[in-house]
User: Fold this.
Amino acid sequence: MNGTDTLQSGVMRLEKRALILGLAALVVCAAGGFDSPVQFFRSYLLGYIFWLGVALGCAAILMLHHLVGGGWGFPIRRMLESGTRTLLLMAAFTVPLLFGLRQLYVWANPANAPAEMAITGKALYLNIPFFIVRTVIYFAAWILVTHFLNKWSLEQDRTANPDLTHRLQSLSGPGLLIYGLTATFASIDWVMSLEPSWTSTIYGMIFMVTQALSAMSLVIVVMLLLSKTKPLSDLISPLALNDLGNLLLTFTMLWAYLSFSQFLIIWSGNLPEEITWYAARATGGWAWVAVLLIVFHFAVPFLLLLSRFVKRRIRLLAAVATGLILMSLIDLFWLMAPAYDRAGPQFHWMDWMAVIGIGGVWFWRFASQLKRNPLVPLHDPRLPQGATHHA
Assistant:
């Protein structure tokens, strides 16, 4: 059995199990929704935002690779491309949420919306018809850009046309700008507007960095699972792993820097309409979640990723990445859940079912796309240089 056959058989087993697990978890979650529809939509939103973030993070890192041409991107490029091809699935996962807008957002019920929304003009932006229109625009932009990124990359595999590299670079620059703009507004729409009285100019950037961190962590874990498969195994050298570990370290530091900057700006301003957001997340049980994030979302991975010993060994690097995936989910929960319950963190069983359910179906789509194409872009003219650098 050659490397391709081994890959396909292994991935087929994983994708089938992921799909069965995902569908079963979604059925259980939906059944719980009949008893508690509000909790269902809250849990579903958590799982949806997390896995959408992974797909968008894959797109951002993919465009960054095309733009700069670093050798670090070749071992993970096919995984990133497969991640972007889950965006159509995530668009379909948006539909159930549209039925729960009135249960999720106070602004979706004009009678219950805060009075200051009408005064400040937020009601002109936060209303259901405009919300749906913006969501359609976001997904149209994401799917269109990633469609051409995948199309031209696979076309280069078939034709070995070096001109396609320039096309990919030319699209990736504007594509990153489109991603930055749409991801910022999407984070405002889907998460910040849970508390429409509060605003932050750094919020979108925090979400973008978290998406990149989650996506990079996931592809590193997948790379471990496929590390013995040819020709991918030829590119996984200690230097290549070191570069990926450095990127993971960079995203970790950026997350900490932006999160602290937001806190510092709001703390120094000391405005009542702003500090209430942090007050809800820094008291009671939520304060312990904040400490957990400081320690395990930044301090511990920061110290571990400073070590070349950790970064150059795929199992150790994947272990750190696994921890960061979990902490990114907890970070998202810390951002969202206090909008509903400020007494303290209470992980509802539907939270886990929604994350596992959407994640299982997401991974099924990811794996089914990954097995269709070569694991390495063999006809990219920059590959020999990148492979030599990591030899």
Summary: The two ends are 27 Å apart (CA to CA). The mean pLDDT is 90. Residues 3-35 form the longest helix (33 residues).
